[in-house]
Amino acid sequence: MSFKVESEIHCCGGKLLKLSHDSSKTGTSMNVNVYLPQQFYHKQSDKIPVIYYLSGLSCTPQNVSEKAFWQLQADRFGFAMVFPDTSPRGEDVPGDPANGWDFGLGAGFYVNATQQPYAKNYQMFSYIHDELPTVLDQFFKNPSLDFLDNIAITGHSMGGFGAIAGFLKHYSSKKYKSCSAFAPIVNPSKVPWGEKAFGGYLGSDAAAWEQYDPASLIQKVQNNGTDRILIHQGTSDPFYRDQLKPELLLESVKGTSWEGKIDLELVEGFDHSYFFVSSFVPQHAQFHAKNLGLI
């Protein structure tokens, strides 16, 4: 399955590639940005690991590529970055019937929809975790890029939820070496954004919701003893108290193997924007670089 290179941009010491491809999972064309660090072009590393970054509600691959400054950290430690889109898009792709911004186009919630009319296109869980890494590996066909094995995952807001859920659902196979999140929705079954999305994509069955809810998933996953999840949350985030509620994840792990393994850092005065995200990307980059064997 071939990618089309829409543009190739020199950035920091490497290049940002803006790509598109036809997805078999979503049935649409999907955009994805990939940053290849300076080590790739200077042949300084035999094997370059990859971090997948999942963006939040209403975002495209451009927001994080232009505002988070991951490229500087990628050059520093020697990892590549993959920035997928947040949902399928196109004239025939159903959106929010209420014309909202928190469901439908730009708000795929990284789940596999089971409800109509969304099930045809909104297969974002399978797209992110199965199809995209595979087709990237097939497209680049470069032994110095590791899209499949030495990988980590992170994300912001809706994407933070998607990162944690994907990490936990693949934990037994050790697909991801590490996971972090910026202001994630940690218990979507109990907040308005999640209730709307899960209801629309998954229906009314609470058991279907639990299959994606980090607060439920983490209680069923046995920590190997060393893994930790890093989370940053701004105290001035307007969504902190009613939509994100990171403390609910801490409550859910009490008495489990994950108790004491969730590093929640509340940072005074920070909001929900990319000013917040970019401020703590260096800490998250170092966290993943260590787990990816780069430090």
From TrEMBL:
GO CC, any one term: cytosol
Localization: Cytoplasm
Zinc keyword on record: no
GO molecular function: carboxylic ester hydrolase activity; S-formylglutathione hydrolase activity
Active site: S157 (charge relay system), D237 (charge relay system), H272 (charge relay system)
Gene Ontology biological process: formaldehyde catabolic process
One matching Pfam family: Esterase
Catalytic activity of the protein: S-formylglutathione + H2O = formate + glutathione + H(+)
Main location as per UniProt: cytoplasm
The protein's enzyme class: hydrolase
The organism's place on the tree of life at top rank: Eukaryota
EC annotation from Swiss-Prot or TrEMBL: 3.1.2.12
Keyword Hydrolase: yes
Keywords assigned by UniProt, alphabetized: Cytoplasm, Hydrolase, Serine esterase
Family of the protein in this entry: Belongs to the esterase D family.
Reported function: Serine hydrolase involved in the detoxification of formaldehyde.
Protein name: S-formylglutathione hydrolase
Source organism: Lachancea dasiensis
Upper taxonomic lineage: Eukaryota, Fungi, Dikarya, Ascomycota, Saccharomycotina
